[in-house]
Amino acid sequence: MQIVQPRLALIGAAALLAATMLAPGPTIAFDGTPQSAENADKTPLQIFKNPEAALRAGLEDFRSGDSRSGLQALKYAAAGGESLARWKLAKMYADGDGVPQDDEKAYDYFEQIVDNYDEDNSSAREEAVVSSAFVAVGAYSLTGIANSKVAADPMRALEMFQYAATNFGNADAQYDLARMYLDGVGVNKDAGQAARWLHLAAEKNHAEAQALLGQLLFTGREGVARQRGLGLMWLSLAQQSSGQDKKNQWIADLYQKANAAASDTDKQIAALYLSDFKKRH
């Protein structure tokens, strides 16, 4: 079976924040620690009423193109416990977007979100951010980060993916968890368990999950009964969902191979399943 390499799956997040008035507050340095006037950066640092106000200011600064002030404000907000600020900074460092690419710093910010999450005192607006952070920490833990303190730890990756998959219904986590069962990384190989997680993600239009589920069903495997028509349907959906991005060429290849091997009956059954899927979605 063709399996793509693990990747850091990140999802978007948004926050609705109540408006507050800005007022003088403590000056915070770029590293998030208090800074006195004597050793302040030559460029004046912004002053914020509270972390929430800093978050709003930082996001607005980035929208207006002021990345330096935006970075300062987000670090203030992150140091004050704002999950969205931590997530934004983590994503910036992971992607090298406006800052030098640094997976270790990205991991640290994602881990802060995970470590400070309290499911008994969480808000709905933070759910996407927290869910994404669990997946990201899992992805980094699965492979480790070269030349850093973050070593490969499949058991922690399994814990992170399971939590996000079960508690948040996160499709990326469900897919990554399925991959662990397919590859036998951190767990015993179990195609049946993998298929169950893939199905949950595939129903959410997760293209990679649809492709792997389709291949599993089309070819069959120990623990997964062969259902060529249903498998072809999932592969067809995966191809449609994946678009023209070159990184998804493997999905197109799987579909084309299965379609070439499918009988007319397989294709007719796939069409019926596809019609039913579209009615449900």
Automatic annotation (TrEMBL):
Pfam family, one: Sel1
Organism field: Methylovirgula ligni
Keyword terms: Signal
InterPro entries: Sel1-like, Sel1_AlgK, TPR-like_helical_dom_sf
Signal peptide: 1-29
Any one GO biological process: ERAD pathway
Protein name listed in UniProt: TPR repeat protein
